[in-house]
Amino acid sequence: MKAVQFHEVGGPEVLQYGEVEQPTPAAGQVRLRVAASAYNAADNGMRAGFLPIPIQLPHVPGYDVSGTVDAIGEGVTGLTVGDAVIAFLPMDRDGGAAEYVIAPADAVVAAPTSIPLADAAALPSVALTAWQALFDDGRLTAGQRLLVVGAGGVVGKYAVQLAKRAGAHVIATASPRSADAVRAAGADQVIDHTDVDLLDALDGQVDVLLNLAPIEPEQFAADVAAVRDGGVVVSTTAFMATPGDESRDVRAATVFVLPNRERLTELVALVDDGALTVEVTRRIPLAELPALHAEGAAGRIAGKVIVLP
């Protein structure tokens, strides 16, 4: 089968497209015929060697995947060959940048039926990140005020949609390029972070600040003033500490997204109910994945890109 893999960590040039052996599912596993995998920034970090996730080389990237069940290992129940599914694969194992991939059966859920199966690869880890940030770490509830810094990215637009559905008042920062999309996702107020000072633009403090942007640590620490006493600061930027304020009982939490089959099933239902929109900005063939990693390393990727085998 065709796959993209790397035998050593390094720049995008270490990625190789070619023939590899088709895997066989063991007990508790299924093999998926890949419809698409999704590119994530963490794929770049693992390939470059600066993201501390243990992987075995050679490694196939792409931990978000959609496809159809192709073979079933011993002891697996509830799945049949031909089922359309999505999965958030274990990040330390081979991913979906291939024609076939092995998935733990307990990581697989039925795919949305309202969107193309390939596009569904854009959902798992990013939507789970948004949910975990808002409700598990942020403990957001109806009637609270949420500030999303960097809402124009993929996780940000999921976060805005989910927070509005939960009854929160959503304030979001975005560039002029993404402001309309953030409003369409449901933001009550959009602040142009390229034009105004965030703290000056707010009309009051918030209960939860969710940071999704690679801002300077000094700026991040200053933004904590936007959070009310007893509130929370949540961040997905694991490369820097999330600031809080113990003197005001402002809690800090950093998101490390975890697989959650039950939650992913709920997110699929929201997509099929029309309450959650899956956005795909580009679709590329598998052979072009090394070039996409080069774009990612240069910071030139906007939106969600899926990779077709």
- Average residue pLDDT: 96
Helix content: 10-25%
Quaternary status: single chain
Structural class: alpha/beta
Order of helices and strands: EEEHEEEEHEHEHEHEHEEHEHE
Give me the number of helical elements. Answer: 8
The Rg value, from CA coordinates, equals 20 Å
Q: What portion of the residues fall into strands of 2 or more residues?
A: 25-35%
The low-confidence runs, each spanning 5 or more residues with pLDDT under 50, are none
Largest sheet: 7 strands, mixed
Outline: globular
Distance between the termini: 10 Å
In terms of topology, how is this protein built?
Layout: E1 2-6, E2 15-19, E3 29-38, H1 41-48, E4 64-72, E5 84-88, E6 100-104, E7 108-110, H2 124-137, E8 145-149, H3 154-165, E9 169-174, H4 179-185, E10 189-192, H5 198-201, E11 206-211, H6 217-223, E12 227-235, E13 251-254, H7 261-272, E14 282-285, H8 289-297, E15 305-308
Parallel strand pairs: 8-9, 8-11, 9-10, 11-12, 12-13, 14-15
Antiparallel strand pairs: 1-2, 3-4, 3-6, 3-15, 4-5, 5-7
Helix pairs in contact: 2-3
